[in-house]
Amino acid sequence: MAAKVNSDRVKKGGRNAKNLKNLPPAKPIKVGVIDYKDIATLRKFVSDRGKIRSRRITGVSVQEQRLISKAVKNAREVALLPYAGAGR
């Protein structure tokens, strides 16, 4: 027999509108020209572990996020940025 699914059940810890509206609003980072050689600007968008920060955290637009991710990947390829953060 198939188990009956309770439609009233809500996943705990899941992201829904109630959880998201309690987050503090993200301050958008001002972005001028995005270039893979400008490491100081790109470091604002990369975490200490080496991951590219999401739009939700940085507050940039979709188009800017695409340009940032492409610039970070190019900078990693030319060895201006590390692929991973500092090893512990």
Within CATH, the superfamily of the domain at 27-77 carries the name Ribosomal protein S18
Instruction: Give the distance, in angstroms, between the N- and C-terminal Cα atoms.
Output: 51 Å
Q: What is the overall pLDDT average?
A: 80
Q: Name the CATH architecture of the domain at 27-77.
A: Irregular
Report the top-level CATH class of the domain at 27-77: Few Secondary Structures
Largest sheet: none
Low-confidence stretches: none
* Outline type: globular
Helix-strand pattern, N to C? Answer: HHHH
Structural class: mainly alpha
> Tally the helices: what do you get?
4
In total, the number of strands is 0
Give the fraction of residues assigned to helices: 25-40%
Strand content: under 5%
Radius of gyration: 19 Å
Under CATH, the topology of the domain at 27-77 is which? 30s Ribosomal Protein S18
